[in-house]
Amino acid sequence: MKRFVLGFVFLLSLVVTGFGQSNVTINVKDGSGQAVADALVTLNSKNQKTDASGNVTFTGIADGKYAYTVSKQCYVSVTDSVTVAGSDVNVNVVMSLKT
Question: What values do phi and psi take at 57, rounded to 5?
Fold first, then answer.
């Protein structure tokens, strides 16, 4: 019985700590290397805007492959994918001005 309880507590702790979940940070810059603030980033049906440094972080992302889109007025939207495999992921995106 003691082993069962210990096993259950261990499994419960994995669920509570978000086993298999990671953070995805996307950094958005323009062609000259300047941060793009307030760009809308969509990942896994969740939307967030980049901060003044061009960064946005999605937390609690399970392992898998996810499409993301980055858009902002006057810029060409960027769509790509990111794979999460047990660790945090950083993605760099370069946006071009519309012509």
Answer: -125, 125
CA distance 29 to 96: 9
H or E segment to which residue 2 belongs: helix 2-16
- pTM for the complete prediction? 0.80
The span from the CA of 29 to the CA of 36, in Å, is 5
Strands 64-71 and 78-84: antiparallel
Q: Tokens standing for 96?
A: 């071009």
For each successive 10 residues of the chain (99 residues), what is the average pLDDT? Answer: 55 50 98 97 97 98 97 98 97 96
Bridge-partner residues for 57, per DSSP? 25
Backbone dihedral angles phi then psi of residue 42, each to the nearest 5 degrees: -115, 125
